[in-house]
Amino acid sequence: MKIYTKTGDKGQTSLIGARTDKDAPRVEAYGTIDEVNSFIGKAMTELDPEKFPDLLADLEAIQNELFDCGGDLADVRKEPQYKMAEEPVEVLESRIDDLMEEPPLLERFILPGGSPAAATLHIARTITRRAERQTVTLAKAGEEFPVVVQRYLNRLSDYLFAAARVANSRVGVPDNEYVRSAKVFKNGGRAKKND
Fold it and tell me: Where is the Cobalamin adenosyltransferase-like domain (predicted)?
């Protein structure tokens, strides 16, 4: 089976229902979601299944949900068939609350890093923020897509932050605090609000 079609050789690609330029904002957004998904896959290879069965289950579900988000962004038909719903957002919120209870109290900003899995999860987190910004750009331009995708990406970045802290905590690697950070988190970061 050949995986190349040669149809994109002139800088265009297929959406669901149309063709567009490969550097179109919509393609940038779902391409960035694919990038997030790849780093999540890498993080999964770095997590010990015996220590992190819950995170691995979360991340597998998230990979599928990211595929749904990308598909929804690619669907430009007059009657699109979107897949994302509110439930995955609610699940992420619940998991964030659970995970933030586990590591030591957080008072200051932390630097990305620590264990290999935590470092990879932080990379996925920052790329998720980029994908979220790209959906904001799409919305401002009046592009149609389900708003739940944007909410999901916002919660996912928070989830990945919490998961990175747990990835460090369970293997005994402390978070690396930003040395010039004031104490910025009330309640030790337990009630972190979504930005």
Answer: 3-167
